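Hey,

The postdoc asked me to send both predictions to you directly instead of through the lab channel. I've kept everything plain text so nothing gets mangled by the mail client. Protein one:
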Amino acid sequence: MSGSLKRGNIVSIQGRTVWYMSVDPAGDKSKICIDKKIVTFDINIHLMEELSGELQEFSTSFREHKKEEALKEIYQEFDRDFRGELGREFKKLGKDMDSKEGFHKIVHLNKKVLDFTTRMKNLDNLMQDFDEFERQERFKKIIVDRLMTIEASRLMNWYDDVMRFMNEVNIGDMIIMPMKEYGYFAVGKIKGEYEFRQVTPNIKHLRKARWKKRMIFSEELHSRLPMMQNVLKLDADTEAFVLKLIHEQWFIDRKE
């Protein structure tokens, strides 16, 4: 991540606003941004984390499908009725079990079993469709209910991140982006307005950017940055700290 920086690659940064943008410091989005000459941000709405407890309960509750209970009740009802009818018919037949009439009675009872099997199969298919519909509706309700309980401060953080990225960051502003390798930050400049287009399945909200070949390294910088916000204009002290790092690590002349 280090190396010399030729004079021709030096960009003056005097008077520029410096933004911190967290893209995906634990993954590979940041490298994709550099390769594609764009910047995005992690909106930090991770439903799988927000819903971890609810999803565990949801998964467990649907292991025993309601259709199984419904089918069990119907089968038990049929079994009682069928056994009763079979007993009555056999009692009527008595010694004529092997007669023509007895044979027809057995065929009739066998047909009832086949009809019941068909009914159970159709019901099973219907209950599967019902279970899937109920599963979807319950899952949607879980999401809505959970989002309704998220702290107002977190919702405001999400809102602030989106609005800053779309409207407040200006073309020409400087950006720093944490990389997967702890302590390293990419340095770049905003080159375009907000766009919505798919670069990868996980990168759709973006702005064009130009990234410098060298990065800055500072573990201390991590401690100066916010945990809950992903698009933030650096305060004066942190901005000065970043510019000092660039000056020291790149030997930049900050004069125009």
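Protein two:
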Amino acid sequence: MLQENIIETEGRKFRYLQRKGDGPTLLFLHGLSDTSDQFNPIAAHLPEEWHLLAFDQRGHGGSWKPEKGYSPLDYSQDIKNFIDAVGINSLHIFGHSMGGRNALLFSTQFPRQIQSLILGDIGPDKNLEDIKATVDFFNSLPTSFKTEEEARIHLQKRKPGYSDANIEILMKNLEKQDNGTLVWRYSKDACIQSVNESRSREWWEYLPEVKCPALLLHVEDSSELSTDVAKRMIEEIPDIQYQPISNSGHNFQLEQPENAAREIQRFIETP
């Protein structure tokens, strides 16, 4: 299990999880409206000697929530600030969804600090339809829940195939207020700004600039990454491997953690 910590850098607070070890250092970056807790299932299947970290990105979880500044480039700078603050020179990064796009930008901006890049079911394409669908989704969500049971029922209806353990992970994305109600730990405005900043333009020009080895984990029939975009990514990133993920939705870090961990370990440990 990853242990919770808080760190401040540049006057900004970040909540992060860590399991120390003497092996490879791997940083997990979560997707939109998620938290670092979503990587506990994968961590359980990775070697005990690996040094694992995951942090709540700006606008999410227990980290700072500025009113603006939600471009992938802003997130990329946070990644640098975070790894500098914890005293790590370079590491491997697995970014899921939004976290993958942020990691992609980081790898081109700070190439000396990344050993390998693992992209989880995300591409660099522009997608205006996704912006509208995401905004509609956030506007349709309840803003609060009266009880934990009410929140749990809501999550079970949204994710009917999820195990009880995964529902409890999603429950960590809620916090109890003084009046007893539960509210989301992410900033809705931050999420909407993030999807607008990332999906209103294309990021293809960064792919040829990736200098480290890369792995693309692509969910079959993905709702987020089309086969055509994935094929183009393979052509444009100089040193990349491709691995499809079957029998899973977009959140394969929760739905297929053993499979995901196996592919991550194979990639990192194979010269």
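Summary for protein two, as requested: The radius of gyration is 18 Å.

Thanks,
C.
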